[in-house]
Amino acid sequence: MTFESFFVGQNSALIDALKGEDQKLIWIAGESGNGKTHLLSSLCNQYDINNKRIQYLSMAEAKDYSPEIIEGLEGLDLIAIDDLDCVVGQYTWEEKLMHLYESILSSSSRLIVASKETPKGLSFKIPDLASRFSLGLLFRIDPLDDDELVFAIQYHANARGFELPDDSAKFIIKRTVRSVTSLMDILDILDYESLSNKRKLTIPFVKSVLKLN
To answer: How far apart are the C-alpha atoms of 191 and 123, rounded to whole Å?
Structure first.
């Protein structure tokens, strides 16, 4: 994933903050499917290309492991923690996160966090941890409106080498899940079926492929 494949919409300030390296702590809030994971992955890829040391962790997956897995990460250039809300409320995890936060203050590492809510919107067991996370640069990903969603899926369709007509794009937006992640999955399906059947993406064909009445 890259920043170039992310439809910016109203989120240009967030992209600029991520690409720059002067912000040590950035917190990204937003609903599932709005692109938080895409942005974290894009930043990790950018650092990796520049031969920098990175660690990406999804707390949705890591929550079943020992919190000790985040020990010593302050020695890296970038720590990207996704789905942090999945471990908020678990005291042992919060203790380790507090230690990580304190450690990066005296290091050159950056900590980028993604969560469904802002620190104040989560139920931390350690109130000081919420307060300290709130000192970072906070962004909420704005969901795309209908026109932006249409533009986004047409942009990605063109990037993949196929045409998605305006009427078909608008139909997809109105009749399917509106999250960007889900729409990209739908484009994968339509791309495959269009090539396999040698069909243009008309509304009747889209209806048939997606099994929409």
So the answer is: 42
- In angstroms, the CA 197 to CA 180 distance is 25
Number of domains in the chain: 2
pTM above 0.85, yes or no: no
Q: CA-CA distance, 56 to 81, in Å (whole number)?
A: 6
Count Cβ atoms below 10 Å from residue 26 Cβ, excluding itself: 21
- What does the mean pLDDT of the chain come to? 92
What is the spatial distance between Cα 20 and Cα 43, in angstroms, rounded to a whole number?
A: 10
CATH no. for residue 23? 3.40.50.300
Q: Last residue of a domain, which of 81, 106, 140?
A: 140
Q: Which residue has the tokens 């729409």?
A: 183
| Domain termination residue (choose one: 89, 107, 140) | 140
> pLDDT tens digit string along 36-60?
999 999 999 999 999 999 999 999 9
Question: If you count them, how many residues does the chain have?
Answer: 213
Domain span at residue 205?
A: 146-210
* Angle between helices 166-175 and 146-159 in degrees, nearest 10: 120
122 plus 181 within the same structural domain: no
Instruction: Report CA dihedral (9, 13, 18, 19) to the nearest 10 degrees.
Output: 90
